Amino acid sequence: MNIRIKLSIQFTAIVISILVLFSTAIYFFSANFRKNDFNTRLEEKALTTVKLLIEVKEVDSMLLKIIDRNTINVLEDEKIVIYNNKNKQIYKNTDKATEYTDPELLKSIRERNKINFTKNESEYIGLVFRYAQKDYIVIASAYDKYGLKELKNLKIILITGLLASFLLSFFAGLFYAGRAMKPILDVISEVDNISATRLNTRVNEGNGKDEIARLAITFNKVLERLELAFENQRQFVSDVSHELRTPLTSLTGQLEVTLMKQRQTEEYETLLNSLLEDIKTLTSLSNGLLELAHSNIDIHAFTSVKTRIDEVLFSAQTDLLRRNKNYIINIDFEELPEDEQKLIINGNENLLKIAFINIMDNACKFSTPNRVDVNIGFSNKYIVLKFSDQGIGIPTEEIKQIFDAFYRASNANAKQGHGIGLSLVKKIIELHNGFSTIDSQIEVGTKICISLPY
After folding, report:
1. DSSP bridge pairs for 126
2. Per-residue model confidence as pLDDT tens digits over 264-287
3. Is the distance from CB of 383 to CB of 343 less than 8 angstroms?
4. Is residue 298 pLDDT above 60, yes or no?
5. What's the first-to-final CA gap in the chain, in angstroms?
6. Residues whose CB falls within 8 Å of the CB of residue 354, separated by 6 or more in sequence, listed in order
7. Counting runs of H as helices and runs of E as strands, what totals does the chain give?
8. pLDDT at residue 358 above 70?
9. CB-based burial of residue 389 (10 Å sphere; 0-12 exposed, 13-18 middle, 19+ buried)?
């Protein structure tokens, strides 16, 4: 069952429930009003009859019967019986009038002064009329022909109206549910046309205000993230295939040349050393590519905890000096913070460590004294880390591209590398809601500034 039918059924059920309650209330109050009104008329008739018989001396039973028969407001199947204080019948308006001799009934009327009851669709009233210190009982009954007929007609009208309302509500619900669902159906139609090769397509956001528009806006944001992820994947695959081709080709070429003829032991040693260097290069490249791939993952995929930046820096310093004993890494504070909480951020220690190692490794590798100075400072909202070296610098026109994956400055070819480090740094810093800037002058040095929120 689709949503349109479900909404129509629910709408119809709500409307019919309200109408049933309303119709039931109308019928109940109408029936109650009819009964009270008829009982009032019956009581007035009974009192009028007993007063004429008891109070008016000129009126006897025969005359009262004639008066009753010729009264214009005679009730349908009207019967009136009057008893004296000794429960003896002294009057009945018609021979068909039932003679109520049940002592319990008469006793109940005397005790309660007035009672009402229904028997065989006729309404009955029994009441006590006191005159000259004597209690007379008058019992009147009649059939409310017109009132019951009107009530029956009202029931038919209400039931017919409910059935008509049911059909009308259902089809009206179908119509309005269809109109309400149309924007969703349009979104579904547009989504059906989106494929892996058409991720740049966007869904119509409508008026940009209602829930459907918010759904379209949210879906468009998902498409943007998917498009970015697909583009990153495509670029990553392209870059990987390009970067792996060179060392693999070198390995293959050296092995093919060597196998062309028998070689001396020294030649094989030379070949193995060369192959070892290429494999180390390939391993370094593979590690860099894996780190680059991980950096494209949302930070929420990693464990994010409270991390002290100075401890991460010192850990990165230790690891880097273990690999390169000739490096000089100096870490200092602009000023010691009064509150140590300023050194703590929410982040992933391993990723931050990779970023710091890459920055410090680049600084040491491209500077003549193999030295980098790291300065820890603070602003209103950020921890500011400044990495400075006195190296070869970066050409001004190439600074904007230096954070691109696999890009290497034109003056960096003398040093081994793959152009992955700074690209990795940028992505890791952005994952931590930080930002990075770079300032460099040829043969003067480079300064990289990293800002991370507390």
Report:
1. 115, 139
2. 778 778 778 777 776 766 675 566
3. yes
4. no
5. 52
6. 291, 424, 428
7. 9, 12
8. yes
9. buried
Exposure pattern of 400-436 as b/e (b: 16+ CB <10 Å)? Answer: eebbebbebbebbeeeebbbbbbbbbbbbbebbebeb
Same domain for 358 and 437, yes or no, is yes
What phi and psi values does residue 433 have, to the nearest 5 degrees?
60, 25
The whole domain housing 19 covers 3-149
Q: Is 309 within 8 Å of 343 (Cβ atoms)?
A: yes
Instruction: Centre a 10 Å sphere on the Cβ of residue 111 and count the other Cβ atoms it contains.
Output: 9
Query: Is the CB of residue 91 less than 8 Å from the CB of residue 79?
Result: no
Q: Are residues 271 and 318 in the same domain?
A: no
Looking at every residue in the chain, the average pLDDT score rounds to 79
State the Cα angle at 417 between 414 and 423, rounded to 5°: 125
**Same-domain status, 18 and 119:** yes
Write down the pTM of the prediction.
Answer: 0.47
- The 10s digit of each residue's pLDDT in 88-121 is 888 887 766 665 667 788 888 888 888 888 888 8
Angle, CA of 325, 425 and 449, to the nearest 5°: 85
Which tokens sit at 183? 């924007």
SS3 category, 55: coil
Q: What is the mean pLDDT of residues 234-256?
A: 67
CA distance 351 to 259: 43
| C-alpha 101, offset from chain centre | 75
| Whether residue 275 is found in the same domain as residue 306 | no
- Say how many C-beta atoms besides its own lie within 10 A of residue 105's C-beta: 16
Look at residues 374, 318, 376, 372 and name the one whose alpha carbon lies nearest to residue 345: 376
